Amino acid sequence: MNNDLRIYLNKRISVLPEWLADHSYRTAKLAMKLAKYYKEDTQKCELAALSHDIVKHYDNKDLLEIVSKQNIDCLDFEIKNPNVLHGPVASHYIQNYLDDTVIFESVRWHTSGHYTFNNISKIVFLSDKVEPYKVTNRPELNQVKKLVLDDLDQSIIKYFDIQFDYLETRKIQIHPESIKFYESLI
Ligand SMILES: [Fe+2]
Ligand SMILES: [Fe+2]
């Protein structure tokens, strides 16, 4: 099963814009490092990280069309903010290659996070947020990165403290699942 997913992902990643393929590989590299450190399943972390952004380059109109045609279950917030639909759509595309729900959940909720996340999903979530390029681009994320080897939950709390401020300053609405997730951790 994992091998079929790997073959599928190789195909998908080979047609991604270079910046996005590079981000996916950096996310997977960090996810594997953290998985080893926390003694979690490195393969699941890697595959979820490689899957998470396979349709991030799709435009909002295409994402909305796929969600509607494939009947993908989404929140009202996500339909109104279609840039976050690339998670639900990516998880839909990989679901037939999966033999458990962990990779699916990690990919489905990678933008917002989710209060049901286990360590694998938390590792994938954080790896996406603090892979080296993102930290270079937003140095305040170094505070998150510093905590990542101490405690996954504290690192996620720090990320949301920074991200909620960032979104509020830009008058961008916060994903309701991020709030639920944050409240479950504090
Ligand atoms: Fe994403
Ligand atoms: Fe990403």
What descriptive keywords fit this protein?
mainly alpha, Hypothetical protein af1432, 68% helix, 0% strand, binds fe (ii) ion
Q: What is shown here, in short?
A:
The protein is mainly α and 186 residues long. Helix content is 68%, strand content 0%. It binds fe (ii) ion (2 copies).
Description:
By secondary structure, the protein is mostly helical. The chain has one domain: Hypothetical protein af1432, CATH 1.10.3210.10. It is built from twelve helices and no strands. The longest helix is centred in the N-terminal third of the chain and has 20 residues, at 18-37. The model has no long low-confidence stretch (mean pLDDT 97). It binds fe (ii) ion (2 copies). One fe (ii) ion binds next to helix 2. Residues 52-53, 56, 86, 110-111 line the site of one fe (ii) ion.
Whole-angstrom Rg: 15 Å
What best-fitting shape do the alpha-carbon axes yield? globular
The sequence of SSEs as H and E is HHHHHHHHHHHH
Might you state the CATH topology name? Hypothetical protein af1432
Distance separating the two termini: 37 Å
Q: Report the bound ligands by name, code or SMILES.
A: fe (ii) ion
SS element count, helices? 12
CATH architecture: Orthogonal Bundle
Strand content: under 5%
The number of distinct β-strands equals 0
Unreliable stretches, pLDDT < 50, 5 or more residues?
A: none
CATH superfamily: Hypothetical protein af1432
Q: What structural class do helix, strand and pairing data support?
A: mainly alpha
Give a quick account of the main beta sheet: strands, pairing sense, barrel closure: none
The number of domains is 1
